[in-house]
User: Which sequence fits this backbone?
C-alpha cells in the first residue's frame, strides 16, 4: 500500500505538520494572529512580504543559519548510522572553530588555498576532539554520551581561554580574520541585500554529497554501518570493530568541526569568546532525526530548522514572542521522537485500507 511504501517520508512530514499545528493552536490561545506564523515562514523562505516587496536578505540569512545546522546534522547522522550517539558534537563544533581561527590568524596564506586549509584544520580539530570518546568506548566500554557531554564543557572553557590569549584579542573577540583566509563574499552579500551569505554553502554541498557517497556507495561505509548494527557479526566477517568505531566518530567529529570552522571563517570572520554553548551540536540531533539520517533528508531538515530560527526575529516584529518558533521546533522534535506511535497509527490505517480493498475485491469476485 501507499502508506507503508512511503512511511519513512510520511513520519517526518506528519511530525512537521503536527508541530506547526501545535504552534498555531498556542498562538490562537494567546489571542494573536495565526496568519503571522505563515507570513513569517514565507518571508523567511522567500523574502516576500505583502505590501513590502521582495527582500532577499531573509533568504540569505536562511542559508547562513542553515549551513552549520546541516553540517552538525550530518555529523550526528553519520555517527548514528554507524551505531554511535555523538552528543559531543557541540564541543567538536567549538574546537573546530578554535583550530580554524588560530590557523587563519597566525598563518595567513594566499586565497583560496589558505581558507581551504583553515577549513580542513577546523575539521581535524573536531575529529581529534571526538577521538577520546571513541577510544574510551572501544578500550573501556565507556558510553560516548557521558564523555561527550563532559567534553562539551571542556571545549567551551578551553576555547574561551585560548581565544583571549591570541594577539590582539579583546575580552569578547579576536582580531578580524584576513580576507584571504575567510569565506565572506561582497558579491553574495550585495545580491542578498547585505546579508551574511558566504561561500560556505559550497562546503555544505560537498559535505552532503560525500556523506551520501561514503555511507551508501562504498564498502568502507558498509563496514562502518555493519559494525554499528552488529559488532559480533562484523567481527566474524573480519571487520575490525574497534577501529571502525573510532573512525566513525572521528568522521562525525570532522563534520562538526567543519561546521564550527564555517561559522568562524564565514558568518563572523573572527573568533568569539562564548558566554554559553550555541547549541549547534544539540540542534544537529534534531536535524538528523527529522532528516532520517540520510543526506537529502538532513539538508531539508537543516533548512527547515534554519527557517524557524530566521522566523523568530520576524515574528517579534509582528508582536508574537520568538519563543513561539522555538515551541514549533520543539514540537516537531517531540513528534519525531514519538515516531513509533505515528508508525503504529499509520500501520493501523494501512491495515484498515488493505482490509477494505480486499473486501471489495472479494465481493466483486463473488458477484462475477
Assistant:
Amino acid at each position: 500500500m501507499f502508506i507503508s511504501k512511503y512511511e519513512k517520508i510520511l513520519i517526518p512530514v506528519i511530525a512537521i505538520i503536527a508541530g506547526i499545528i501545535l504552534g498555531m493552536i498556542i498562538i490562537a490561545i494567546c489571542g494573536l494572529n495565526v496568519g503571522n506564523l505563515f507570513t513569517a515562514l514565507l518571508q523567511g523562505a522567500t523574502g516576500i512580504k505583502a505590501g513590502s516587496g521582495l527582500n532577499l536578505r531573509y533568504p540569505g540569512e536562511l542559508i547562513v543559519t542553515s549551513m552549520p545546522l546541516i553540517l552538525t546534522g550530518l555529523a550526528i547522522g553519520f555517527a548514528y548510522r554507524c551505531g554511535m550517539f555523538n552528543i559531543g558534537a557541540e564541543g567538536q563544533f567549538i574546537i573546530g572553530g578554535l583550530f580554524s581561527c588560530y590557523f587563519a590568524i597566525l598563518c595567513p596564506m594566499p586565497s583560496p588555498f589558505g581558507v581551504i586549509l583553515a577549513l580542513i584544520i577546523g575539521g581535524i580539530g573536531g575529529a581529534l576532539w571526538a577521538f577520546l570518546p571513541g577510544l574510551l568506548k572501544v578500550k573501556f566500554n565507556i558510553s560516548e554520551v557521558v564523555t561527550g557531554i563532559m567534553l562539551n564543557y571542556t571545549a567551551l572553557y578551553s576555547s574561551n581561554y585560548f581565544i583571549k590569549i591570541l594577539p590582539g584579542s579583546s575580552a569578547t573577540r579576536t582580531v578580524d580574520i584576513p580576507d584571504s583566509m575567510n569565506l565572506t563574499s561582497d558579491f553574495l552579500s550585495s545580491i542578498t541585500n547585505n546579508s551574511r551569505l558566504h561561500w560556505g554553502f559550497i562546503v555544505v554541498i560537498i559535505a552532503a554529497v560525500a556523506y551520501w557517497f561514503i555511507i551508501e556507495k562504498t564498502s568502507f561505509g558498509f563496514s562502518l554501518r555493519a559494525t554499528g548494527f552488529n559488532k559480533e557479526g562484523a567481527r566474524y566477517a573480519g571487520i575490525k570493530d574497534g577501529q571502525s568505531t573510532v573512525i566513525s566518530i572521528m568522521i562525525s567529529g570532522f563534520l562538526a568541526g567543519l561546521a564550527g570552522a564555517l561559522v568562524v571563517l564565514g558568518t563572523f570572520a573572527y573568533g568569539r569568546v562564548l558566554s554559553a554553548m550555541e547549541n549547534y551540536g544539540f540542534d544537529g540531533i534534531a536535524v538528523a532525526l527529522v532528516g532520517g539520517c540520510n543526506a537529502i533528508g538532513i539538508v531539508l531538515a537543516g533548512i527547515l530548522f534554519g527557517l524557524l530560527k530566521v522566523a523568530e526575529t520576524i515574528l517579534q516584529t509582528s508582536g508574537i514572542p520568538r519563543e513561539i518558533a522555538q515551541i514549533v521546533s520543539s514540537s516537531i522534535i517531540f513528534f519525531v521522537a514519538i515516531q513509533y506511535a505515528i508508525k503504529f497509527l499509520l500501520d493501523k490505517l494501512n491495515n484498515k485500507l488493505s482490509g477494505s480493498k480486499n473486501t471489495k475485491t472479494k465481493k466483486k469476485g463473488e458477484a462475477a
Observations:
- The mean pLDDT is 87.
- Strands lie at 48-49, 53-54.
- Residues 339-367 form the longest helix (29 residues).
